[in-house]
Design goal:
The chain is mainly alpha-helical and about 325 residues long. The chain contains 15 helices and no strands. The chain has 2 domains: about 200 residues; about 80 residues, Arc Repressor Mutant, subunit A (Orthogonal Bundle). The N and C termini lie far apart (about 65 Å).
Length: about 325
C-alpha cells in the first residue's frame, strides 16, 4: 500500500483554496496578491514537510528552514496591506527575515530559536493590531471588515501556536532525540487547515433579543465631537444613501467626512457599541426589509440594492440583526397581507 502522509492532504486542501482565490479575486489589488502568495507559500511548505517527514528526503530540510521565517512576514504584510498601502518604510520585517537567514547559515544551532521568536513576534503583532486597532482595516469593504478582523486574530493565534510547537520540537530533541517530531508537524498542518476553515465561517450570525432596526441607540459616553460625527453619518446614510455603495470602506467613509479614520471608528464604537461594519449593515438591512415588504425583487437583487457584495453575507447579516432569514421576513409580510 502506498504511504500517504497527512500533510499531503493539507497540501491538496491548500492548493484547492489557492485555485478558488485566484479565480474569484481581483489580482490587481496588492492585498489579494499578498494573501494568494501566502496561501501558495503555505502549500509549498506543506508539500516540503510531506516529502521530508513522510518520505525521509533529508536534502530538502534546508529549504524548509529557509521558507519557515518567510511565512509570518508575508502574513504580517498581507494584513498590513488592509490598513494602508505598503510603502518602503513599512518593509522593516524584511530585515528580520534576512536576519533569520543569516543565523541559519552562520550560526545554524540558533536557527530554531530565531524562527521561534519570529513566529511568536509576528503572531503577537497581529493579535495586538486586532485588539487595539478596532476598525483599522480601512481598505476592507465594510461588509467584510468583521470577518477579516476575525481572520487576523486566527492567523496571529496560529503563528503563536506554531511557535509553541517549535518549543515542543526543541524539548523533544533534548529528551528523546526527536522521536515525536513527525507527530507534531502533522498536528500543526491539520490545525492550520482548521484555522482556515474557521476563518471562512467566522461571521456566522449570532442572535439578539431586540429589534436593532427600530431600537434606540445607546448614548453613553458621547462627547460633543462624537455626537457631531454620528449626526453627519446619519445624514450620509439617510439622506444620501451612502450605505448602498458596495465598495464602501472605512477610508472612503472617512474621506466623505474629511476626518481621520480613527475618529470615525471611535465615534461609532463609543456611541453605538458596535463596529463600523455593523453600524453600516444595520442601515443596509433596514433598507432591505423595506424592499422585501414593498417589492417582489429576488433576494439577490435586494442584497445588491442594499449594498451587500454577496448574497451569503447579506443572509448572514440579515439574520444577525433581525433574527430572521430574508425569505422568512418576506413570508411574514405575505401572511399579514
Amino acid at each position: 500500500m502506498i504511504f500517504v502522509p497527512l500533510p499531503l492532504f493539507a497540501t491538496l486542501g491548500l492548493v484547492f483554496i489557492l485555485i478558488q482565490m485566484v479565480r474569484s479575486r481581483d489580482m490587481g489589488l496588492q492585498s489579494n496578491q499578498l494573501f494568494i502568495g501566502l496561501v501558495a507559500l503555505y502549500a509549498l511548505q506543506s508539500l516540503l514537510l510531506c516529502l521530508h517527514w513522510g518520505y525521509e528526503l533529508d536534502g530538502i530540510a534546508i529549504w524548509i528552514a529557509m521558507l519557515a521565517p518567510v511565512l509570518p512576514v508575508i502574513a504580517y504584510f498581507a494584513y498590513l496591506s488592509l490598513m494602508n498601502r505598503l510603502t518602503a518604510a513599512m518593509l522593516w520585517p524584511l530585515a528580520i527575515l534576512a536576519g533569520n537567514w543569516a543565523v541559519l547559515f552562520l550560526i545554524p544551532s540558533f536557527a530554531d530559536v530565531a524562527i521561534l521568536m519570529t513566529y511568536l513576534g509576528f503572531g503577537a503583532a497581529l493579535l495586538r493590531h486586532a485588539s487595539t486597532s478596532g476598525d483599522a482595516l480601512e481598505l476592507v469593504h465594510i461588509s467584510q471588515a468583521d470577518n477579516m478582523m476575525r481572520a487576523m486574530i486566527l492567523t496571529g493565534a496560529a503563528l503563536v501556536f506554531s511557535a509553541l510547537i517549535d518549543v515542543f520540537v526543541i524539548v523533544d530533541f533534548i529528551r528523546t532525540g526527536g522521536q515525536n517530531i513527525g507527530l507534531s508537524v502533522t498536528l500543526v498542518q491539520t490545525i492550520f487547515l482548521l484555522c482556515i476553515g474557521f476563518a471562512a465561517i467566522a461571521g456566522e450570525p449570532g442572535s439578539t433579543q431586540e429589534d436593532p432596526i427600530e431600537a434606540a441607540l445607546p448614548e453613553k459616553n458621547i462627547t460633543e465631537e462624537d455626537g457631531a460625527i454620528i449626526k453627519r453619518l446619519l445624514h450620509l446614510f439617510e439622506a444620501e444613501a451612502l450605505h448602498h455603495d458596495t465598495e464602501l470602506n472605512l477610508r472612503r467613509l472617512s474621506r466623505r467626512l474629511n476626518l481621520p479614520s480613527r475618529s470615525v471608528s471611535q465615534a461609532i464604537n463609543k456611541t453605538q457599541n458596535e463596529s463600523v461594519s455593523q453600524f453600516v449593515n444595520r442601515f443596509r438591512v433596514k433598507h432591505a426589509c423595506k424592499l422585501l415588504e414593498d417589492t417582489d425583487q429576488t433576494i439577490l437583487q435586494i442584497s445588491l440594492a442594499a449594498g451587500f457584495m454577496t448574497k451569503s453575507n447579506f443572509n448572514r447579516e440579515f439574520a444577525r440583526i433581525t433574527n430572521h432569514t430574508p425569505s422568512n421576513w418576506r413570508k411574514q409580510r405575505d401572511a399579514s397581507t
